[in-house]
Amino acid sequence: MIAELRERIENYSYLGPKGTFTEAALALAPEAAGKPWRAVNNVPEAVQDVVEGRSVGAMIAIENSIEGGVTASQDALASTPGLRIRGEYVVPIRFCLAVRPGTKLEEVTTVAAHPVAYGQCRRWLAEHLPAHSHLPASSNVASAEQLFEAGVDAAITPPTITEHLPVELIASDLQDNHTAQTRFVLVGMNQQVPEPTGRDKTSIIVELPEDRPGALLEMLEQISTRGINMTMITSRPVPDKPGNYRFVVDLDGHLHDARVADALLGIRRFCPKLIFLGSYPRVGVVLKQADLAHSDERFAAARAWLASLEAEDAQDDRASSPSV
Length: 324
Known about the structure:
Elements (H helix, E strand, L loop, with lengths): L1 H9 L1 E4 L5 H6 L10 E4 L2 H9 L5 E8 L3 E2 L1 H9 L4 E9 L3 E4 L10 E4 L1 H5 L2 H7 L4 E4 L5 H4 L8 E4 L10 E5 L8 E8 L11 E8 L7 H10 L5 E8 L7 E8 L5 H13 L2 E9 L14 H25 L4
Parallel strand pairs: 1-2, 1-3, 7-8, 7-9
Antiparallel strand pairs: 3-4, 3-11, 5-11, 6-9, 6-10, 12-14, 12-15, 13-14
């Protein structure tokens, strides 16, 4: 019983089956090394594993350098109270065309592919298979599994697919952009914020309180006036409020940085529906130092100055009060 409970707690969930880019991202997470991994069918299932305690963490794709934000992940983050990002990982994206052994390119009329993968291979497909039909798949490995179903001739897959299925690769580097990469985040229910590293990112989701001219600008000014670099902003519709949107925002810096904390306070005043997703080390970028006016030292000096004025005011009040 104890062993079963320990295994359940230490599980890490990811979009399966084995061989997906999500699994490759999970392999980059030090805390998941040597722990049981749980392959699931989609992002909501991975997140639900964490919420219900079947897994301690879940790796989910959050943004692709070509297709942009991954909407299923962004919506899951927005709708799951208490979920926090613990780290980010970047995986280079390479696609191949897999077929049943012996199939020739000229015989291909239908191609199974995950919609995001399909969108990244449009140019190659238009040139080499202009008359093909697309069959959506739930993952880049599930597309190859469809090869063994009737009516599927080829699949867009990772190069490693031959390690998992008896298929043949007849074309490689299908992706339109050869610098394409996908950013993944490891999420969990642990509320503790990692200590600052000097190369951190803070992620939030903001729902504007009302739809009016200048509302978004007011929110963004809370960021820009504090000298914070915003590295991503995407909009997602609020399901129960047609015409309203929430914004997924990434900021350079850490919650413990005075300028970031002050910006979040400013945003919270304008937008009570502010979700803090976490502050965590970002991948592969050396951040520029904040301008001197926005440094922690200047914030501390300003707070000390204000405290001195309040102390002087309190002293004057005591001096002017009549003695009894």
